[in-house]
Amino acid sequence: MGERPHRRRSRIGARLAGLWFLVSVALLVWPVYPWLGNHVHPRVLGLPWSLVWVLLVIAANFGALLLLYRLRVVDDREHDDPPSRDPEPVASTGSRRRVDR
User: Fold this and answer.
1) Where are the domains of the chain?
2) How far apart are the C-alpha atoms of 6 and 23, rounded to whole Å?
3) Pick from 23, 24, 4: which is nearest to 72 by CA?
């Protein structure tokens, strides 16, 4: 109810980024790629459009990952988890050293 603004922003950013990654997959496979990206002309800086299209999608994915990093989505979730009160783990029976006589 009274959610902090940065948490809500992080949650919205994570959902939008997840949606973007699904869209970016669609941009690189059938049916979208043959319609928009599978052309040689126009050439951009001497590169065929099909290569420029893939590079643009990769650059947009980098931007989405940068956005997630700046929003610190993963860090917020890790810091919000309460510390566990489990006792230290006991060595299992499989970790005993075998003594040969």
Assistant:
1) 5-80
2) 25
3) 4
User: Which two structure tokens, joined as six digits, stand for 16?
Assistant: 């939008």
H-only helix segments in 1-101: 5-28, 32-36, 49-71, 73-80
Q: What is the pLDDT along the chain (101 residues), one digit of tens a residue?
A: 555 666 677 778 778 888 999 999 998 998 888 998 888 899 999 999 999 999 999 999 999 898 888 877 666 556 665 666 666 666 566 555 666 66
pTM to 2 decimal places: 0.63
* H or E element in which residue 99 lies: none
Q: Report residue 72 as tokens.
A: 């610190």
> Among residues 60, 35, 63, which one has the least CA distance to residue 49?
35
Nearest residue to 11 via CA among 79, 61, 72: 72
